[in-house]
Design brief:
Keywords: Transcription, Transcription regulation, Transcription termination, Transit peptide. InterPro entries: MTERF, MTERF_sf. GO terms for molecular function: nucleic acid binding. This protein starts with a helix and ends with a helix. The protein has a domain of 104 residues: Transcription termination factor 3, mitochondrial (Alpha Horseshoe), CATH 1.25.70. The chain has 20 helices and no strands. Helix 3 crosses helix 4. With 359 residues, the chain is mostly helical.
């Protein structure tokens, strides 16, 4: 009997030694292989599928590989953010998303970016939000574009966000534009974050329709701090233009001015103009009509001013201001392209400059 036990021990020891060597070999190959795995995802699927189904992590990884199409690396990473003991709810989520036009590729990307979506309630949360997005015109590819930007939108109280904007006079088209441009807005507390900003715009004298129109094109302002960015920017603008009426003109001409660090960009550019002899009245005219022209990087704006001076414009005239506007709204490459076209027709540099002045 002892001899029998001895042989069993030798056999088990040999097998264990062989297994250890094999695992060490696999580790060595894996460590020297870049961007690929020793085993393909497809060859691992049966192994993972046959693993102990009572182990939540094994079940989760297997499901993410087999049903969602994730890579092994993505599946392992995602399994750290969610685990489930049965596939009933994830199956319901995938089924619902497929019904609404999402392809396997869409699902793979969506779940890679937001694994916990598989645990969302398909009936109380996902379906109402998808139906709401579809009512705004999103389906299939356009629906995935929105979800690709912000997958958490399906887990939010989207109805409250949409109703908030409707109450402030936003049309369905404008809400749709906001949703496509910045779906992350659905993750905010609209009454705590957005309402004070919209009320502040009203206090400046903007009408509801104006606010809706501007924000549908520039919703990013709603992410800015009211006190530290928006109000501070308005105060700087008021110091320059003097009156509330002019403040409105500047903001209406370009809402994006409220997103800039005006002390860093605007003030140095105004100083450049003043130092070149541009009258204050002309600077004010430029700022109220085309504030965007003064929001270039200071080094680029200084270059534009130098180019306009070389063209022979007098800094004390309105023509100088108009030339600044033309040069700032036109990309340098486009200006060079136009010069090249004029030159190809035989125009001299002086004739090209004259043509520019006559624009």
């Amino acid at each position: 009997f002892c001899v029998y036990i001895h042989y069993i021990y030798i056999f088990i020891s040999s097998m264990f030694h062989l297994l250890c060597n094999r695992l060490e070999y696999i580790r060595h190959i894996a460590s020297t292989t870049s961007h690929v795995y020793l085993f393909s995802t497809s060859s691992l699927k049966p192994i993972l599928s046959s693993s102990n189904s009572t182990d939540p992590q094994s079940l989760t990884v297997s499901y993410l590989l087999n049903s969602c199409g994730l890579s092994l690396e993505s599946a392992v990473s995602a399994s750290k953010k969610l685990q489930f003991e049965t596939t009933d709810q994830p199956d319901s989520v995938l089924s619902l998303l497929k019904i609404h036009g999402l392809t396997q590729t869409h699902l793979k990307n969506l779940i890679t970016n937001r694994p916990p979506i598989l645990l969302a309630d398909p009936h109380k949360t996902l379906k109402p939000n998808i139906d709401l997005l579809k009512s705004l015109g999103f389906s299939g590819t356009s629906l995935f574009k929105v979800l690709g930007k912000e997958p958490r939108i399906l887990e939010t109280d989207a109805y409250t966000v949409v109703e908030f904007f409707r109450a402030y006079g936003f049309s369905e088209k404008q809400i749709s534009m906001i949703t496509m441009k910045l779906p992350a807005l659905y993750t905010y507390n609209v009454y705590k974050i957005f309402k004070p900003k919209l009320e502040y715009f009203k206090s400046l004298g903007f009408q509801g329709a104006e606010i809706a129109h501007k924000l549908s094109f520039e919703p990013y302002i709603l992410q800015r701090s009211l006190e530290n960015q928006i109000i501070h920017s308005v105060q700087i603008i008021r110091l320059i233009v003097g009156t509330n009426e002019n403040v409105l003109k500047v903001i209406k001409a370009g809402y994006r001015i409220l997103e800039y660090n005006l002390e860093k960009v605007l003030e140095p550019n105004i100083a450049i103009l003043m130092n070149h002899g541009v009258p204050e009245s002309k600077v004010l005219k430029l700022f109220t009509c085309k504030p965007r022209s003064l929001l270039l990087r200071t080094d680029r704006f200084n270059q534009v001013v130098s180019e306009v001076l070389k063209l022979g414009f007098n800094p004390t005239t309105m023509m100088f201001v108009l030339a600044i506007i033309s040069k700032t709204v036109m990309r340098k490459s486009l200006w060079e392209q136009k010069v090249g076209v004029f030159s190809s027709f035989g125009l001299s540099d002086d004739e090209i400059i004259s043509a520019f002045k006559l624009q």
